[in-house]
């Protein structure tokens, strides 16, 4: 939980990877088989990811125990972010494979807290999906950029922007400090969340 | 499995409800706590739904056992439809609550088989979400219409169509016979699917 061990979690934590990216400072919750992390570029406040600890690309690659643990973690973390961010609903989405829009070849469930009319200025409730699949939801690209490379631009095919209101490129990814602070806050909130 | 008992499943099956709708003939797979059904208006071939047997609106309302069973069923059914419909990826999405776009107040996971470039004519990979949240993915409205009422039009707020290529209102919901045939085919395919 200190900056020294670069983790929002209490006690020692082994390095945690999201695909090829080291994300330990962004992780706010772990179970035996899963973990939850904050996003570089949340598309709405409280947009977090839940992944299996084992780096595999597809849901079908998970064992039954990993599958259960992953979605029990989604359920518990979802309840927490809905409470903490004052939301009333959640979008839960898994892009399971490249042709479904997956950008990092490591199973991850998006959890996005929703409120009434929260995306009216972007086109309505369903705008969340354009954002999820557009540049601002491209977690792979965001992580590559955070690592300082420009290769992300070359590797990620250009997608058509459907909602011209926001210039995604102008939105800066959050700093490690910002993400670390949110991860610490969410780690504390997870402790308040009933286990069942 | 006959039209007499109105079920694609072998043996006697108690009536199964999706929200307030009786969907027994569309159900192709059941477990102790979950079931899978074909859609009235699939947005892509093989688009199916998985629900808990208990009618509750939110994922947080599920018990841990129901949550595990639901997503183990999603994983197994997903593997099956990906194989049967010759797909390479899956979109898995739960609209968990009204403000996330949920149209029937009964937890349901959408499973949508995806192939490379399958939605290029609709705007690209992410067009699936517009379709999911637009009129053609509105399962509540589709079921209400299937029940013969016009009240669906009055109850469902008009949504802006983003992809004008397809006139959704012109697309007819499938008949009970079509859905029953698909459900029987998928019930047989589920038997080939390994349990783990």
From TrEMBL, chains A, B:
Region of interest (Disordered), residue spans: 147-179
Active site positions, chain numbering: 108 (tele-amp-histidine intermediate)
Cofactor(s) it depends on: Mn(2+)
MF terms (GO), sorted A to Z: bis(5'-adenosyl)-triphosphatase activity; nucleotide binding
Matches recorded under PROSITE patterns: HIT_2
Enzyme Commission designation: 3.6.1.29
Alphabetical UniProt keywords: Hydrolase, Nucleotide-binding
Motif (Histidine triad motif): 106-110
Binding site for substrate: 39, 95, 101-104, 110
Family annotation (Gene3D superfamilies): HIT-like (3.30.428.10)
SUPFAM superfamilies per record: HIT-like
Sequence ranges assigned to domain HIT in this UniProt record: 14-121
Composition bias, Basic and acidic residues: 147-158, 168-177
Major enzyme class: hydrolase
The organism's place on the tree of life at top rank: Eukaryota
Catalytic function, reaction form: P(1),P(3)-bis(5'-adenosyl) triphosphate + H2O = AMP + ADP + 2 H(+)
InterPro entries according to UniProt: Bis(5'-adenosyl)-TPase_reg, FHIT, HIT-like, HIT-like_sf
Site (Important for induction of apoptosis): 129
Protein name as annotated: Bis(5'-adenosyl)-triphosphatase
Organism encoding this protein: Penicillium frequentans
Classification of source organism: Eukaryota, Fungi, Dikarya, Ascomycota, Pezizomycotina
């Amino acid at each position: 939980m200190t900056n020294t061990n670069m983790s929002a979690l209490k006690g020692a934590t082994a390095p945690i990877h999201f695909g090829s990216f080291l994300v330990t400072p962004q992780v706010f919750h772990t179970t035996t088989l899963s973990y939850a992390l904050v996003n570089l570029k949340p598309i709405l406040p409280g947009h977090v990811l839940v992944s299996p600890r084992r780096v595999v690309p597809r849901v079908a690659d998970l064992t039954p125990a990993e599958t259960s643990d992953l979605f029990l973690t989604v359920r518990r973390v979802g309840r927490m972010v809905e409470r903490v961010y004052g939301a009333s609903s959640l979008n839960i989405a898994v892009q399971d494979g490249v042709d479904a829009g997956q950008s990092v070849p490591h199973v991850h469930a998006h959890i996005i807290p929703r409120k009434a009319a929260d995306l009216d200025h972007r086109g309505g409730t369903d705008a969340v999906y354009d954002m999820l699949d557009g540049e601002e939801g491209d977690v792979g690209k965001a992580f590559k950029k955070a690592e300082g490379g420009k290769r992300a631009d070359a590797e990620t095919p250009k997608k058509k922007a459907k909602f011209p209101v926001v210039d995604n490129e102008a939105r800066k990814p959050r700093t490690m400090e910002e993400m670390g602070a949110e991860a610490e806050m969410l780690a504390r909130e997870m402790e308040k969340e009933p286990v069942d």
